[in-house]
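RECORD TYPE: inverse folding
INPUT: structure tokens
STRUCTURE:
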């Protein structure tokens, strides 16, 4: 201690206040049960059996082992993911209810006129769960285009005739086409379907001319010569498609359209719980056995990403899709 230090009334009051605050903080922490002290509900806002369900169950299995509590996957489908997200937004922020959502989470923020929650303020971003995966642009052989430049030139001469299908207005595959049309200054014809399966069948049959989809969905038809690949939609070439150029390197710099999955908790979830979930999620999804099962999605390993970094990523995706949606004048009611 400094021998010249002389306590005064102000110093004593400050020291007393800090001591009291420390006691209150320790008392509050001691009163909260060790987490997790009960089963965890992992909500997916889509139907069981799809990609989100696959991803959620892989994550849930590892988290159950690591956290010592059951992690139960709860599919609450409806309204493009809004119903399930709303259920989590209204849940207690105690780490017992989590949301595994897709890039639709960022899209919905601008696509719908009114949501029952604020996409950023109602949730705490926890961690990415699946790294962004690319789409491919596949065309019917009758379309006289073997690369992106030829596709753009053809569409410019034949506006509104290059039809492409997606699983509905405002989904990621639809917006990938809108982004391409806006970047290239062309007019494509969007054909919305009620599901993903009929799109591939109609493209192979020639009823539509083009589609954006996962590489897995079209690979067999490409090998048989029934479809042709034009480009992939990531900023960099996927390791699974090293010979297929990106849209960005084919004349539209900066173009990117990907799909991703992320983990969110209700706003107000304690920081120590969020940090633990972040670490365990990144560890779980980078396990070799998990990555082997996710290989069908064409994604890679997750980079170290803090909750703050994932929140910034989500914010960036919301803003990026908002620009596309405004330019296309798209709007839906929730």
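DESIGNED SEQUENCE:
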């Amino acid at each position: 201690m400094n021998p010249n230090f002389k306590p005064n009334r102000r110093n004593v009051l400050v020291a007393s206040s800090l001591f009291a605050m420390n006691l209150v903080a320790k008392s509050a922490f001691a009163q909260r049960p060790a987490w997790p002290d009960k089963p965890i509900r992992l909500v997916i806002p889509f139907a069981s059996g799809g990609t989100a369900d696959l991803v959620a169950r892989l994550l849930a299995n590892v988290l159950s082992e690591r956290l010592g509590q059951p992690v139960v996957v709860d599919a609450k489908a409806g309204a493009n993911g809004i119903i399930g997200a709303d259920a989590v937004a209204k849940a207690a922020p105690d780490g017992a209810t989590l949301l595994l959502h897709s890039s639709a989470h960022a899209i919905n923020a601008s696509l719908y006129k009114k949501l029952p929650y604020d996409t950023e303020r109602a949730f705490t971003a926890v961690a990415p769960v699946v790294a962004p995966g690319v789409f491919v642009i596949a065309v019917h052989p009758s379309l006289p285009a073997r690369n992106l430049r030829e596709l753009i030139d053809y569409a410019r001469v034949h506006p509104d005739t290059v039809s492409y299908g997606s699983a509905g207005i405002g989904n990621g595959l639809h917006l990938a086409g809108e982004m391409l049309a806006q970047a290239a200054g062309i007019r494509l014809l969007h054909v919305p379907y009620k599901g993903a399966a009929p799109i591939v069948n109609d493209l192979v049959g020639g009823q539509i001319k083009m589609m954006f989809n996962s590489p897995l969905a079209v690979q067999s038809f490409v090998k048989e010569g029934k479809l042709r690949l034009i480009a992939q939609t990531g900023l960099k070439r996927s390791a699974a498609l090293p010979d297929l150029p990106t849209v960005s390197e084919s004349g539209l710099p900066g173009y990117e359209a990907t799909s991703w999955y992320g983990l969110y908790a209700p706003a107000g979830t304690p920081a120590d719980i969020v940090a633990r979930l972040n670490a365990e999620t990144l560890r779980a999804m980078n396990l070799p056995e998990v990555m082997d099962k996710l290989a069908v999605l064409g994604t890679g390993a997750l980079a170290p990403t803090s909750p703050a970094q994932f929140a910034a990523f989500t914010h960036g995706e919301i803003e990026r899709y908002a620009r596309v949606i405004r330019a296309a004048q798209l709007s839906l009611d929730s």
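NOTES: Residues 9-31 form the longest helix (23 residues).
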